[in-house]
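User: Hi! I have a protein structure encoded as tokens and I'd like to know what sequence might fold into it. I'm fairly new to this, so please keep things simple.
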């Protein structure tokens, strides 16, 4: 009364391994529990799934212990009687138990997992018979072969091509073969002509691009400052920074301050990427700590840590002794005034009502004057051209003297000596042909055009018309005269001069000499949103917006502002003293000639 338990398993090459054990008792248990007689490691089997009991002779009783049944020859049951001489097949989860008769009265139970049964073996045999797997090399050989192909195609070929190129290639026709996979991306638009000519910048294999390679083409690049001063201004790196610098130096990267620190290539075929803010703030964020003599304020982030703007304000513009004005950088916090030589009230000219507005309507310029009626953008759209009398002012401020045969004769603007000569010639005849029209019409004019008001010189009373040349000359250069109302005038004898003098007018086109501003990028804004011209009563008001106005749209590089702005948006690293401040070559917040 014994059971022979045969546990059957298979190796990878389908060899059968049998572990047999004999149990001498009339009843055995089969399940997942460690204490069962036949232990099946299968989660689909209960701890004690079935009980196999010997009845009489070779007849067995098989019954389910729990609620899960089992299969006998494919039929699900909860209990069954099996004749060992006939044999049967039990199915419990992923295991199959075959019951057969052994020697004498011995009962044989052969246990094996379904995955190792003959159906799976047959399927694998069919795959081998009808596929090329048996004809191909093994996985290990294939892996080594692919590795060798990669080394040859992507490493050996470029190295051999590079090493075998001629030492002197005057026609620049030699290119390294097979180096395209080494590139991390296409070159920017500025360097597109160098696409495929890696050796133009990478002069030595496995060495980073050096400044000498950049300066081969960029010969007019200005230094940001002297090398010793930059070294003093640069913050000392911490322990981690020093470690990174040593690792970079070991792999051929140039020291700090090289061109490649700022100008990153292979980032895409569009404009070159702007410089990261950290490149500038490493020095300028705490510059005063290392350079006590610097006049620059610390700037770490435009939105949170940036000094107030310091425009170049004109000083001494009305000084007759110095025809060229001086410029002084003054913070806008000090509310500076510009000492120019022009008298101009913006509020009068931009008023929505009054004489100026009526003149604008009569001349077809709209209901009132606007900024664009006098201020015209430069050809590149970046700045505004100086205002010209003949083009922008004369339609209202006429210098007409007389009409001859349908042609209007005017006084020469900007030339006091010529004005004196024209008026003297006009009054040379005695009496003159007709009174000078410079003093206006006969009828009275209202408001600002009445006698003694701003525009009385053009529409004065008949009684004020001069009868002699010297009176006419004196009138035009005196209060209420055509020249005096807009310009600073000096009488004869002042400053050692014999004739009447007009202080030279200077109209700066640029105030932010250390930064860049492009009006084109702000075309969606109105002039009044940044410049408080409608409330300005005199030309000396510096109508420049402060940093708070700019911060309504612009924030730091990583700010959640409408326009995140890094340092490179407004400043150029290579700006030179007196550089031609033009937008030539300007891309992505940079300029070639300076910002």
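Assistant: Happy to help. Inverse folding works backwards from shape to sequence: for each of the 595 positions I chose a residue that suits the local structure. Here it is:
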């Amino acid at each position: 009364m014994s059971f022979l338990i045969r546990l059957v398993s298979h190796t990878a090459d389908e060899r059968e391994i049998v572990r047999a054990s004999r149990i001498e008792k009339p009843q055995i248990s089969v399940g997942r529990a460690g204490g069962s007689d036949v232990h099946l490691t299968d989660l689909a089997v209960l701890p004690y799934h079935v009980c196999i009991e010997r009845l009489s002779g070779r007849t067995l009783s098989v019954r389910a212990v729990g609620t899960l049944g089992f299969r006998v020859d494919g039929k699900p049951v909860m209990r069954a009687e099996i004749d060992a001489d006939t044999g049967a097949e039990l199915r419990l989860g992923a295991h199959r138990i075959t019951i057969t008769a052994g020697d004498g009265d011995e009962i044989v139970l052969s246990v094996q997992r379904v995955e190792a049964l003959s159906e799976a073996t047959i399927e694998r045999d069919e795959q081998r018979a009808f596929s090329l797997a048996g004809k191909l090399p093994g996985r290990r050989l294939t892996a080594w072969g692919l590795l060798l192909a990669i080394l040859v195609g992507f490493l050996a070929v470029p190295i051999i091509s590079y090493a075998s190129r001629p030492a002197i290639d005057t026609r620049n026709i030699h290119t390294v073969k097979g180096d395209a996979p080494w590139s991390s991306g296409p070159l920017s638009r500025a360097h597109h002509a160098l696409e495929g000519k890696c050796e133009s910048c990478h002069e030595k294999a496995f060495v980073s691009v050096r400044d000498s390679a950049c300066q081969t083409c960029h010969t007019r690049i200005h230094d940001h400052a002297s090398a010793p001063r930059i070294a003093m201004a640069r913050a000392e790196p911490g322990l981690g920074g020093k470690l990174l610098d040593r690792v970079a130096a070991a792999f051929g990267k140039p020291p700090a301050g090289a061109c490649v620190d700022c100008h990153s290539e292979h980032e895409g075929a569009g404009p070159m990427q702007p410089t990261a803010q950290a490149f500038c703030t490493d020095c300028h964020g705490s510059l005063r700590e290392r350079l006590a003599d610097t006049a620059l304020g610390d700037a770490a982030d435009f939105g949170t840590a940036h000094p107030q703007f310091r425009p170049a304000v004109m000083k001494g513009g009305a000084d007759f002794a110095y025809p060229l004005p001086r410029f002084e950088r003054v913070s806008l916090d000090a509310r500076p005034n510009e000492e120019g030589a022009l008298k101009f009230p913006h509020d009068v000219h931009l008023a929505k009502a009054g004489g100026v507005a009526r003149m604008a309507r009569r001349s077809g310029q709209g209901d009132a004057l606007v900024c664009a009626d006098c201020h015209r953008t430069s050809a590149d759209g970046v700045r505004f051209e100086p205002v010209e009398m003949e083009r922008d002012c004369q339609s209202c401020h006429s210098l007409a003297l007389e009409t001859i045969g349908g042609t209007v004769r005017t006084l020469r603007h900007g030339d006091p000596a010529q004005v004196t000569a024209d008026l003297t010639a006009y009054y040379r005849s005695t009496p003159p042909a007709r009174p000078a029209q410079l003093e206006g019409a006969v009828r009275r004019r209202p408001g600002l055009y009445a006698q003694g008001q701003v525009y009385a010189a053009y529409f004065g009373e008949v009684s004020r018309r001069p009868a002699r040349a010297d009176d006419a000359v004196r009138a035009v250069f005196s209060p209420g005269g055509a020249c005096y109302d807009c310009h600073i005038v000096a009488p004869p004898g002042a400053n050692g001069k014999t004739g009447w003098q007009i202080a030279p007018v200077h109209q700066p086109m640029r105030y932010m000499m250390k930064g860049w501003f492009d009006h084109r990028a702000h075309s969606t804004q109105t002039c009044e949103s940044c410049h408080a011209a409608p409330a300005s009563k005199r030309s000396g008001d510096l109508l420049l917006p402060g940093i708070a106005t700019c911060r309504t749209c612009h924030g730091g590089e990583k700010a959640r502002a409408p326009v995140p702005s890094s340092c490179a948006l407004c400043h150029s690293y290579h700006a030179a003293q007196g550089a031609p401040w033009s937008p030539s070559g300007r891309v992505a917040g940079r300029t070639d000639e300076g910002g």
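A useful reference point when you look it over: The longest strand covers residues 3-10. Feel free to ask if any position seems puzzling.
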